[in-house]
Request: fold
Amino acid sequence: MTIAEDSPEERWAKELSRRVELGENIEFSAALLARQLGESDVVHLEAFLTKIVGRGSAIGFTAFICPVASCRRTLPNGVDPVACPYCKTNFVEDDAKAIPEKYFRLTTVISRDIRWMVVIHGMNSRAPWQETFSWEIANQLKYSAPVLIYKYGWATVEVLLAPVHRRMARKLGERFRTAIEAARSMGRPDRPDVVAHSFGTRLFSLVLEDPDFADLKFGRVITAGSIIRPDFDWDRHLAEKRVEAVMNHVAAKDGSVPLAQWCIPGSGPGGKVGYASRAVINVRNDAFGHSSFFRPENLGGMIRKNGLWHSFLTRPLGPFRPEGCFVKEGSWKPPSLWLVAVPRILGFLVFVGVGIFSWLRRFVDP
Ligand SMILES: [Zn+2]
Reply:
């Protein structure tokens, strides 16, 4: 397999991101940058710089250039330059005029690499999408971003019992810790990006809240079909830098998420109504149902370049306002214990039945 060469824009984005990180040479005109990079296509470079201004990674401003042909240096910031400090030309005496030129100043990195990723699926997901996911990630993303698909076995009646959630979350936390230590020892960044779906979102939220795992830090987090409570304190985890950013992908036609709070203790309809935290990016897809996220035709589109997930994982987030973006309105309260008792007892009975069935099935269809 051959590795595709970087396009000019990708090369420029890498170089400019490097400059931002070093804080060096972050101001230039398109012509000056072209000279520094040894590029001849100034027009393309200028269009690229204008694009990154639109994405919030740079600002444009007007600088003045010394008009003396042998000098042509950029004058120090000043609205009305009267002299060049380099060649000492006095513009008033010499009847010369400083030449205005469009300049750019870099403010944030232009693109972010996806480091490595942990995917925590929902209950009893079957394998095909996991293969698709690994395959698409490896193909669509040029970075070699390893994907760890966390498996927690076949959950049935367990989801009805809060202590079991905590036990499962502890296992997940331990797995995170092992993976983070391995990443560190290989010289990779130690914050994985996270994609969690359905019951996996509940487990991830418990890891964040467990003081025993307070040392674990995460990159950008996508929750899909989330059953995390809408009032979950994302603000605190963002402020404490436990997570870098959160995108909540909501499926408008999700029929499962609204039921979660009636059956699964501690859960809520975050994946239907959104999270209240203003720092989280809630995005609604009007066509999706609870399991649409991992269908190959949808997944491919989302993790492809400029797809929603890819953009969230790689772009500067200041100006990131994707289509379907919304702010959660109104308040949400968990249902009272009296109201949830009946569905939980019923759920328990159903699950015991299903549990026996699936236990038997594993012998028939392992
Ligand atoms: Zn000069």
Notes: The mean pLDDT is 84. The two ends are 35 Å apart (CA to CA). Residues 118 and 148 are 5 Å apart (CA to CA).
